[in-house]
Amino acid sequence: xxxxxxxxxxxxxxxxxxxxxxxxxxxxxxxxxxxxxxxxxxxxxxxxxxxxxxxxxxxxxxxxxxxxxxxxxxxxxxxxxxxxxxxxxxxxxxxxxxxxxxxxxxxxxxxxxxxxxxxxxxxxxxxxxxxxxxxxxxxxxxxxxxxxxxxxxxxxxxxxxxxxxxxxxxxxxx
Length: 174
Prior knowledge:
Radius of gyration: 22 Å
Distance between the termini: 44 Å
Strand content: under 5%
């Protein structure tokens, strides 16, 4: 396998990993009410509350809020449906760099900017919404861990671009 083919294969593998994670992250926003019930049951089954009472308390509070919203104001959960949809749409955008990485590097750079944007969003909106700081740190981790594969992809695309750049003869002027 030549350098170009190896780079392309690596780029596509990293992009596939990123897209799978993005889709899973989005898909989990649809069944929030059920997920929180399952999570709370799982935490209780493993006695997590004995070791991490803050986590168990927070999950219980979020579950109670979602249960109430689901029972009395289900339209509020429509916002998380749109959140999930946005993840899926963004994932589709990464087909461009999968198909033609050099031409569509901007999608990767857009993804990196979006990952960076998670940090100020969590730091500003988390306290405004009463989110515990440690939970905001978990949210920020999505940006930090999300940017890693995109950074690797961007570096490889730049190498691929250098390999495929047309060689121009030096201009001789007179």
